[in-house]
Amino acid sequence: AQKVTQAQTEISVVEKEDVTLDCVYETRDTTYYLFWYKQPPSGELVFLIRRNSFDEQNEISGRYSWNFQKSTSSFNFTITASQVVDSAVYFCALSEARRGNTGKLIFGQGTTLQVKP
Amino acid sequence: DAGVTQSPTHLIKTRGQHVTLRCSPISGHKSVSWYQQVLGQGPQFIFQYYEKEERGRGNFPDRFSARQFPNYSSELNVNALLLGDSALYLCASSAHQGAGGNEKLFFGSGTQLSVL
After folding, report:
1. Which residue has the higher pLDDT, B34 or B50?
2. Fewer CB within 10 Å, N- or C-terminus of chain B?
3. Sign of the C-alpha dihedral, residues B39, B57, B103, B32?
4. Are the Cβ atoms of A102 and B31 closer than 8 angstroms?
5. What are the backbone dihedrals phi and psi of residue A31, each rounded to the nearest 5 degrees, phi first?
6. What are A27-41's pLDDT values in tens digits?
7. pLDDT tens per residue, range A47-89
């Protein structure tokens, strides 16, 4: 069965600190996709990144970076120099690489990040 | 361009009642998915529709049903409401079927359903 675990329920940091959000996944598939979404208080989930299982290169986008390690089934997310606007709930998600699958994601429980000024 | 829109924003119902939630995808998007998010948890997949056909169903009872219309908008219906149905219901749309699994989903702000 597929499963995503985000062990950190809540994290609180002071502005400008770096913070890493952990994500561990389980799947029997050899081809799959991993995602990170951000959920601000307004409710809608905002797409941050997508990674397929064959691409283990780390990615950096501004203050955001992602570390994908297939050997440990982890897809961790780091925010450098955090800002108050980064405060939100962050979700890691897994998707099957199956034809016809256009919208089924398996989400973790989410990590609530609070960045204090 | 408008994003994914959902209505109503908030809804209060009593046990045993029926509810209909509505979703309009981004213009040009043909795929709609529904998720239930209970407070403090991650979204749980309910349904996926593409070109008006059900393409996926999550582990939810038959009290939950959905449909997609020719204009690609969608409705989620829940019958015989239970207290445990209280949640944020999210709709997401995506552009096309593609190879499957790698679609970037665009989410609406959800409908907050409270069952008393």
Report:
1. B34
2. N
3. negative
4. yes
5. -120, 125
6. 998 889 999 999 998
7. 999 998 988 888 888 999 999 999 999 999 999 999 999 999 9
B36 and B89 Cβ atoms separated by less than 8 Å? yes
CB A83 within 8 A of CB A115: yes
Distance CA A110, CA A6 (A): 6
Q: Match 């950096």 to its residue by tokens.
A: A60
Average pLDDT over residues B8-25: 97
CB contacts of A25 in chain B (<8 Å) are none
Q: How far apart are CA B43 and CA A91, in angstroms?
A: 9
> What CA–CA distance (Å, rounded) separates A5 from B62?
28
Question: Around Cβ A97, how many Cβ atoms within 10 Å?
Answer: 18
The residue of chain A nearest to residue B29, with distances taken between CA atoms, is A102
Kindly state whether A2 is in contact with chain B, defined as any CB-CB distance less than 8 angstroms: no
Task: Give the distance from residue A8's alpha carbon to the nearest chain B alpha carbon, in angstroms.
Answer: 12
Nearest to B108 among A37, A44, A101 (CB): A44
Contact B99 A99 (CB under 8 A): yes
Provide DSSP, A22-89.
Answer: --EEE-S-SSEEEEEEEE-TT---EEEEEEETT----EEETTEEEEEEGGGTEEEEEESS--GGG-EE
Spatial separation of the C-alpha atoms in residues B32 and A109, rounded to whole Å: 22
- Closest by Cβ to B42, choosing from A98, A100, A109: A109
Residues of B with CB below 8 A from A104's CB? 33, 45, 48, 56, 58
- The pLDDT > 90 percentage for chain B reads 80
